[in-house]
Design goal:
It contains four helices and eight strands, in the order E-H-E-E-E-H-E-E-E-H-H-E. With 175 residues, it is of the alpha+beta class. Helix 3 packs antiparallel against helix 4.
Amino acid sequence: MDSTASRMVRAGIALGSNLGNRISNLRAARDLLRKLTPADPADIQAPIYCSCPVNCPADSPDFFNTVVEINYNGTPAQLLGQTQAIEAQLGRIPDTPPNSPRVIDLDILYLGEQITDSDNLVIPHPRMTQRRFVLQPLSDIRPSMTLPGDSVSVLDHLRSLNPDVAQLTLVEAEW
């Protein structure tokens, strides 16, 4: 259900970049996300990790990944539109093949307790519990969080991943 949020809720957004100056790309995206709502000292960010590309073309560069959590007051569709506008502003080319290298990729992980399932948006993100490059940074900031519709904490999802699932390298703890 995609209903209007009547109050400020916490929104978790995964950030990824594997083209250009990846740290600068992540910083620019973080700064633009923070401008979506009034400045809030409760905005938090996870460390940046490096990961091998998953389901990408063979010659794809490694990704830098992180998670940012902001306060947000709006619908899931509005947040999707705003994150897509940020991607475009930072140089992401629209309509590229799935999993192609990209300057920036923003994925909405959660939006408060909302559950959304539409043609172009599913919240909580449907594959996040299978991705170390999402779970590790999210676990750094919200280890005990249980996603809407789930009964397992983020940290327990991370611990349950197969050890063969792509390992990460810490790039920057503070950025």
